[in-house]
Amino acid sequence: MSGTGSVRFGREMLRHWPLDPAITYLNHGTVGATPKKVLAKQQALREEMERQPARFLLRELSALSGPSSRPVPRLREAAEAVARFVGAKGQDLVFVDNATTGVNAVLQSLDLQPGDEILITNLAYGAVANAARFVAERAGARLVTVTLPFPLSDKAPLVSAVAQALTPRTRLAILDHITSATALVLPLAEMAARCRAAGVPVLADGAHAPGAIPLDIPSLGVDYYTGNLHKWALAPKGCGILWAAPERQPHLHPPVISWGLGQGFTQAFDWVGTQDPTPYLSAPAALDLLGEWGWEAMRVYNHRLAWEAALLLTSRWGFDLPAPEAMVGCMVTLPLPGSLGKTREEAARLQYALLYEHQLEAPILCIDERLWVRLSAQVYNQLEDVERLAGALETYQ
């Protein structure tokens, strides 16, 4: 175990989360897990909001309403804090419920014509692929899916595969920063550069990136970037961000059109109707907690644990590593012995058996007629959790 100062990473960190202590939780990457301290901040904000709901929501939250005693609206104040964390400017960043909402905002703002193309990869998150397909079909456009290799030993084939799939009709490329199922940290900046050279805008799906890897959004060379803060950045559920390059903002609209129409990028997204804004407003407290625990130390610990898990399990089961260490962040997806199955139905049965028979939470995936396990490494985990998972899986061989 390691940590920073008085903070020791490992199982004792579980006291900071309301997670069920009876469950070995190796699935932080799916929907995140919010620390107690951040939940307390969110509850305090909710109570403050309910004492003066109209003032809080209509006069303090955004800049749309009339005079306020606050020099900076609450959402803009929170956005500035988050923007600093991702290397951006607050004026270029808005909150969305999740990365899928951010993707939909960009897709629904496109002016597609029949025969135009949207490019995604076979590693795209299923909901993102669905949204792209829906928008393309509605406009008579085409959804083009480029196949990226997995497993792989080098990033170069990924960059060339994307570049070769671009055509004069490609109107948008949607590229993952960290893939969901395969947990690969993709060479986003290099792929985006090839798209930019071809005149193709890039929407980056960074659902798993904020808090998991160092992030400087403007340096990536993308046109749009959406990500979740409720995974590795410790914010409450329903807290995502959407960043857009300044030249893209005038034509970008939220999926829900409300009072901010025609009032500018941030105004349009800051008010999309009455909803609970406390996940967004709690994000600075989550970032403060990352600072308190030592975010760089957390990142190093989580990456090392994920890589140690990869080395342990591939060696134990006699498999090759599915990706180089440079493409592993806080998660890793590893092959399972063939005797455990090869279908989606077998994957689902095994995942539920792990949970209900062994009190282990980890996604079991079916990729190319083979079962894989995706392990998330958070500072409340340690290698013994991985060893326990391996032992449980081997009981089904």
What keywords describe this structure?
alpha/beta, Aspartate Aminotransferase, domain 1, seven-stranded mixed beta sheet, 15% strand, 397 residues, 2 domains, Aspartate Aminotransferase, domain 2, three-stranded antiparallel beta sheet, 39% helix, globular
Q: Could you explain how this protein is built, in words?
A:
The chain has 13 helices and 14 strands. The protein is of the alpha/beta class. It has 2 domains: 125 residues, Aspartate Aminotransferase, domain 1; 245 residues, Aspartate Aminotransferase, domain 2 (3-Layer(aba) Sandwich), CATH 3.40.640.10. The strands form 4 sheets. A 7-stranded mixed sheet has the order 4-10-9-8-7-5-6, sandwiched between helices. Strands 11-14-13 form a 3-stranded antiparallel sheet. Strand 1 and strand 2 form a beta hairpin. Helix 7 packs parallel to helix 8. The longest helix has 23 residues. The two termini are 31 Å apart.
Helix/strand order, N-terminal first: EEEHHHHEHEHEHEHEEEHHHEHEEEH
Radius of gyration: 21 Å
Topology, number of strands = 14
CATH topology of the largest domain: Aspartate Aminotransferase, domain 2
Tell me what the CATH architecture of the largest domain is. Answer: 3-Layer(aba) Sandwich
Tally of domains? 2
What is the average per-residue confidence, as pLDDT, rounded to a whole number?
96
- Judging from the principal axes of the Cα atoms, what is the shape? globular
Largest sheet: 7 strands, mixed
Distance between the termini: 31 Å
Question: How many helices does DSSP assign?
Answer: 13
